[in-house]
Every structure is written in C-alpha cells, then in structure tokens.
Amino acid sequence: MAGEGAPTWEDVARSHGRFLYTVAYRLTGNREDAEDLVQEVLLRVRRGLETYQPGSMEGWLSRIATNAFLDDVRRRKRRPEDRLPDEPDWVLPPTRGADEVLAGEVLPDDVQAALARLPDDFRAAVVLCDVVGLSYQEIGESLDVPVGTVRSRIHRGRAMLRKMLTAT
Amino acid sequence: MSHLDDLLSAYVDGELTPGEEQRVRAHLDTCPECRRELQFIGEGRSLVRGLPPVDPPFGFYERLLRPQRRWARAAVGALAAGAAASVALMAGAAPHEPRVRPNVAQLVDAHTASASTSGDPLSGITPAAVPVSFRR
Q: Is the pLDDT score of A156 beyond 90?
C-alpha cells in the first residue's frame, strides 16, 4: 500500500509527464531512447511508489530517470556490439576565440548535440544540475558519488560543452 | 593559491561554504585567467539552463497508460491475422471437383486391336438416313 499522499503512476505521468520527458530527452539525446527511458521510469515508479516520501516529486523522478539511464548505458557498454562512440572531440585543445561565442547565438539543437557528446556520467551530473535544478548534495545522493565528484563532473562537463560550441 | 578550476562551477551555483566563497572572490580579484574561465563556465551553464522543455509526442502517455487497450488491439490484430490464415488454409484444403482424364491413346489402341471391319456384320448394311438432332 502506498503511503499517504503518494501519487499513482498515472498522476505522475499527467502532472510531470512533460518534465520527465524533457529530462529523458536531455539525457538520451533522441526521442526514441527518451520514450524507452520514460517507459522504464514509469515501470520503476509503479514498483517504487510504496517507498515514495512526500517531497520533490521531480527530484525523485529525475533520480529514477538518471539511474535507469546510467544502468542502460552500463548494460550497453558490456556488450561491445552496442558500444556507443565515447571519444568525442572535446579532448582537442581549446581553440582561439572561445570568448567570442555568446549564448544567444547558439541554437538549442546545437546545445543538445553538445550535451549528447559529453561522457555519460558528466552529462548526468550536468542535467541534474542545470535542467532539473538539484543541489550538489542531492546529485551526489542520486548518483551515489561524493559531492567533490559532483562538483568536478559538473565543472568539466560545462567546460567541454562550452568548448564544443565554440568549435562549431 | 593555484587556479580555481571546479571551485568556479560551485561558486556560480552557490555551492561553496562562506569561507570558500571568500577565498574564490579574493583569487578572482587578482587572476584574469580565472575570471575568463569563470565567464566561459558561466556561458556553458547558461546554455544548458536556457534549453526549452521538450513535449512528448502527441498521445504518448495515453498510449503508455492504457496498455490493456494496446494489448487488445494486438489481440484483435492477431485474431484477424489468424482468421485470414485459416481462410487461406481452408481454401487450399477444400475438396475440388474431381478431374477426369481418360487415357485416350490407350483406349484407342485397345479398341483398334479388337476392331475388325471384315467380320463386322454391320459393315455391309447401307447406311440409312437417320435424323439427327443435337440438343444441349
């Protein structure tokens, strides 16, 4: 039996469906995988509603989504045939003129493409911070890593992303 | 103090302790390189924060939340496919009108062997005019 005030998974989908889809899309980078991820999250939500504690529903959903996403990434990496390219161009040194690109000149699709090229762990931290708005402490709990690691991943993720958008 | 590195992201996110924040400010006052990096990082942060929400495809959640309907449709589809297959099978297995294929050549040979015009008592009879009509 779910605790008092615990929503049904239909409530979750109706009230937070757009938010959940957005997080899934920012994590996976394409609609097909985002739809699969949302479906997986709703299944986990249905199983886990009993343990839901009243609080930030969106934080809770984001945590489930991120863990489901990273589980899938790890599963794929164990199967070499499904391995995704994971050596993006961010290892290149910064180019001159990095300061010349302004945020207003960059299209959302370009930002999304750069986000998709970040290493998965970095992308998860950046999405939880800058899309969901969790604190470093909450991100650390979600990803089961120390706050210092969260800080490093967010910083390096932002730097890589910004660098990629300079080069395009 | 060396350069600030990932303290800068924590700084713009308000994730530093008051003491750390004071030290970062003091360093930024004297280090143009870290000030440039702060701007660089801040832009990366703003770009992601400025991304718009993404709408799911039309009817996406309705489809997810009504699996029984989807399964029902699948069942109807399977039944329809099964029925079509049954019809095809029955058509293939249905009894046809038996075809008659007499071995004409063999019958002709057998008749020729037994037939004789010389000993045929009818051979000598003058053919009579017989009215013949063909009706179907």
A: yes
Taking the CB of residue A128, how many other CB atoms lie within 10 A of it? 29
Asked if B34 and B1 count as a contact pair (C-beta separation under 8 A), the reply is: no
DSSP state, B5?
Answer: T
Q: Across residues B65-74, what is the average pLDDT?
A: 59
Q: Are B37 and A158 in contact (CB under 8 A)?
A: no
CB contacts, 8 Å: B40 with chain A:
98-99, 159, 162
pLDDT value at A91 more than 70: no
- The total of structural domains in chain A comes to 2
Cβ separation B64–A98 shorter than 8 A: no
A35: CATH: 1.10.1740.10
* pLDDT tens readout for residues B93-105: 555 555 667 677 7
Tell me: do A77 and A102 sit in the same domain: no
Q: pTM surpassing 0.80?
A: no
**Range(s) of the domain holding residue A18:** 1-84
Q: Other CB atoms closer than 10 Å to residue A33's CB: what's the count?
A: 15
Contacts of B49 in chain A (CB under 8 A): 130-131
DSSP annotation of A130 reads I
Question: Which segment of A45-54, B13-22, B55-64 scores lowest on mean pLDDT?
Answer: A45-54
| Longest Cα separation, chain B | 144
Least Cα distance to A61 among A9, A2, A112, A125 occurs for: A9
Interchain contact A44–B (C-beta under 8 A) = no
Q: Are residues A71 and A9 in the same domain?
A: yes
Using left for φ > 0, alpha for ψ between -120 and 50, and beta otherwise, residue A47 falls in alpha
Element containing residue A138 per DSSP (H, E): helix A136-143
